Amino acid sequence: MNSQINQDDINKAVWNACDTFRGTVSPDIYKDYVLTLLFLKYISDVWQDHYDGYKKTHGDHPELITELMKSERFVLPPGASFYALYERRHEPGGGERIDKALHAIQDTNIAKLRDVFQDISFNSTKLGDEQQKNELLRTLLEDFHKPALNLRPSRVGALDIIGNAYEYLIKQFAADSGRKAGEFYTPPEVSTLMARLVDPQEGDEICDPACGSASLLMKCGREVKRKFGGSKNYALFGQEAIGSTWALAKMNLFLHGEDNHKVEWGDTIRNPKLLDSDDRLKHFDIVVANPPFSLDKWGYDSAEADRFSRFRRGLPPKTKGDYAFILHMIETLKPRTGRMAVVVPHGVLFRGGAEGKIRQKLIEENLLDTVIGLPEKLFYGTGIPAAILVFKKNRADDKVMFIDASRDFRSGKNQNFLGEPDLEKILDAAAARSGIDKYAHLASRAEIAENEFNLNIPRYVDTFEEEEEIDLDAVRAERAELKKTLAELEVRMDGYLKELGYGS
Hints:
Strand order of the largest sheet: 3-2-1-4-5-7-6-8-9
Order of helices and strands: HHHHHHHHHHHEHEHEEHHEHHEEEHEHH
Radius of gyration: 29 Å
Structural class: alpha/beta
Number of helices: 20
Shape: globular
CATH topology of the largest domain: Rossmann fold
CATH superfamily of the largest domain: Vaccinia Virus protein VP39
Distance between the termini: 91 Å
Number of domains: 3
Helix content: 40-55%
CATH architecture of the largest domain: 3-Layer(aba) Sandwich
Number of strands: 9
């Protein structure tokens, strides 16, 4: 089956493959298995497609084919392909066999896939006892062997179609699993908005210190490609605290062909791993993030002795880590070109105490550029509205742009969405940096100081709609007319009743 297929066909096929697990294993567990097997199926199909292509050209020279295959983006060791596992699907020990194949792939491609599969085991008791596990994995292998999931480049076409399927699955898991899954996924339209706000350029180094599945990072990379004729002259950096999510990011980047990246596994606040040659925090042109909202136990106890001096403007509250991430991000901006966008809960704009003091210092240092209020129910797992803060080094003025975009969205059953017109409206307002009635306001530092450095958007953008004034004289006249009409109807009704013999 070599006919070209579209994105929806692949999305539907991979989502249907999840049926094997439903009712047996919870989504927050089986997502890792489905996504890993999709990764294995894709690289196996790519490898086989390229091998068959070389065989057509150099069929009588197997040694030459072997050498040519060594120049591929990755190496698939003998016996580690999806098809080798599929052929043995009826044999016992399927979980152990898949694990060995994955680790062989990892070890053979150590530079790109180091430790990616160390946090997942197809031989785990999470999948049931040995008999149940073997049956489940056999069915899963058969699901991915169906013609609809022939992922050969000669059939699929562009690389991004499988990358997009991966993103589709991640989105579906986030929507199905609620808050837990939402931790690793930023809605695509929000990612697009953030990427356009920071305006990535060729040669930029781009970082997400809480990168999740890396979708926001890749969206910034796509902006460079979009604006510069497909250029891949940029570098992506990230860090993720959860091991399985870090592995997801690595596979996601690999599937999208993003080889120029460095994504580390670890706690960004307690143990930042993106360092320069002098063992100091590495600086970036762009820093973007959707960090966990108001994270409890973010690392307060060790923050005061932070060797990178990230908290010299003040220590965030012990039970709310929002400003810990903001301060880390600011500290990693390049002095001249640095710009950042971060998603925050609204409390970040107005909470007092330590947060209020930090907020004041950031404004007095002329780092805050734009505050954007977003609609509610945009993010998976929470209905609360959020805001985007844009910070910039080397700003042209000392004013802050406030945008109230909370009322412009497309409604969904469980989720709201930002449409393209909504995005354009925000971006146009941010670029224009001028007042728009009931939508945007450019505030001076003096005005913000008068508000005691409170950034609550309604203080700056008045969205109050006056109710239409009621004309009491007109209401009185209308009431008199209705009474007159009612009296006439009563007289006519009495007449009708008399004609029918009911009158007195």
